[in-house]
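Human
Can I borrow your eye for a moment on a structure tokenisation matter? Give me a protein, with the fold worked out from its sequence. Write it directly below this note and I will take it from there.

Assistant
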Amino acid sequence: MNTNATAVAAAPVLEFSGVSKRFGGLEALAGIDLRVMPGEICSVIGPNGAGKTTLFNLASCLLKPTTGSVTFDGEDITSLPAHNLARRGLARTFQNLAVFKHETVIDNILTGMHSRLGTGIFGAAMFWGATRNAEIRAREAAEEIVEFLEIESIRELPVGTLSYGLQKRVELGRALAMQPKLLLLDEMVSGMNQEETEDIARFILDIREERNVTVMMIEHEMGIVMDISDHVCVLNFGRKIADGAPAIVSKDPAVIAAYLGQDVGETA
């Protein structure tokens, strides 16, 4: 057995080690240890104000922890500026839409390719050689994402004219255009109807299976959490109260008392 290969395979994609975050006198997170393993779908759940978005902001370097460290793909990213993460393979969607509403669907997705285009200023100005080839490859990749997300019929429409659910799908496409190893999804199905929610759940599974992307998501919709997650972390008042397989976490008395409050099969 190749023990080095086994060790590499078992290494987490994302790891929080003793992470705490204070905002003045408010302790938003306290001593969080969490490992997101390659190829899994990890959901972070908890009541409003539990610290979920703060955890995501630490993972994407929008905030720095007060104590502890964050490691991505084997590298300590605790002190990195946020803009350095895209090239390393971390992409994120946000709870509130962050699309360019006056631009077309395809142009929105192409903006996600920016971090992967390494051509110089002169080449970009003249649009020849490597720059032209990079642009062709970017457009081919963007078209593949359009097809993957089943939005071919709206590819030339301004995003602002689309339904909320389709705009969220475009935002997902832009994140995929960054060719991530890890995709952070912040309440992806919030505000969607049942059909749109089922579509997104299917796409998340396909992203993991077909594109080999690890997914970490904040989600309030317990149906999607229990159906597609491999691993669930539950936060309450900034502390981790459970961490494990969905079937085990959903039966944890502390989780039921703090968050679920009812059978997870019921409509929340």
Observations:
- Strands lie at 14-23, 26-36, 41-45, 67-72, 75-76, 90-92, 182-186, 214-218, 231-236, 239-244.
- The first strand starts at residue 14 and ends at 23.
